[in-house]
């Protein structure tokens, strides 16, 4: 009897992919002898590289993530070659692991030509007729992204427990991160990771509030700063180097360690080293949860019921204004104290 071949596809952002990890684990539990592969974009790939539930990870590059000097035509040509390779692999199952029904992924799934396709369907979704195992998408309040995704398990069966999402940091990057924190460890204080960056304007806490927070924390904690690299003026990949410089300039190394991370794997390793993470809603939130870290999370204009940290202790601050700038530094510091005391 030939081996069952399953391809799981998640082409979205970091947090979306992390929320897919429990589904991957469940598919593996129900298909222990299958070949299970995954397709992800190059930006998010470190989330699943080395995942024990996957046999192989296929990586494609989005045009906006192409390397310097690389042409968009080259990106699309390699994507075509990858599509042909996946088609020749003759998958028994293709799982479209996104909480939506969109024409572009459906067209791509059709090109791959798996024998059976599992995906969500919604009224009016063009191309959904190719889904052999449709799962009606029923949206509702109070449902986490992980819980939505677990509905895609229906054609395979059910598992007794939905597991936590977990990432294994790259060993070499983890060792390097720990080396950078040698002095911070010597202070004997708990290490509080503070993520300065957020993509949405309503999630962006200003530099002066981060300074205020670190001043409140420094008697008892050592702060470790993380942020998206690059300048705010970079249209393709805006970063927070200027914001980080403003915050860091207010302190010396006894109180703050800066952890610039040029790649996602470095961020994962750095967050894995701290005792607690403070962050706004976004990819870092889900990295923290997948590293098993307690979290203080600030939400702005997004759905905290769908995107809160999965299966870790957390304190959630979501003001009525739906703008994190309404959150006081004292609120965040109090939440840090409470979580640390509960550990």
Give the SSE layout.
Elements: E1 5-9, H1 14-18, H2 21-30, E2 35-41, E3 56-60, H3 72-89, E4 93-96, H4 103-112, E5 116-121, E6 133-136, H5 145-150, H6 171-180, H7 182-186, E7 191-195, H8 207-217, E8 222-226, H9 241-248, E9 256-258, H10 264-273, E10 276-280, H11 283-290, E11 295-298, H12 304-307, E12 314-317, H13 329-342
Parallel strand pairs: 1-2, 1-4, 2-3, 4-5, 5-6, 7-8, 7-10, 8-9, 10-11, 11-12
Helix pairs in contact: 6-10, 8-9, 8-13
Largest sheet, spatial ordering of strands: 3-2-1-4-5-6
How confident overall, as mean pLDDT? 93
Low-confidence stretches: none
Cα gyration radius (Å) = 21 Å
What structural class do helix, strand and pairing data support? alpha/beta
The percentage helix is 25-40%
Which range does the strand content fall in? 15-25%
Instruction: Count the beta strands.
Output: 12
Order of helices and strands: EHHEEHEHEEHHHEHEHEHEHEHEH
The CATH architecture of the largest domain can be given as: 3-Layer(aba) Sandwich
For the record, what CATH class of the largest domain applies?
A: Alpha Beta
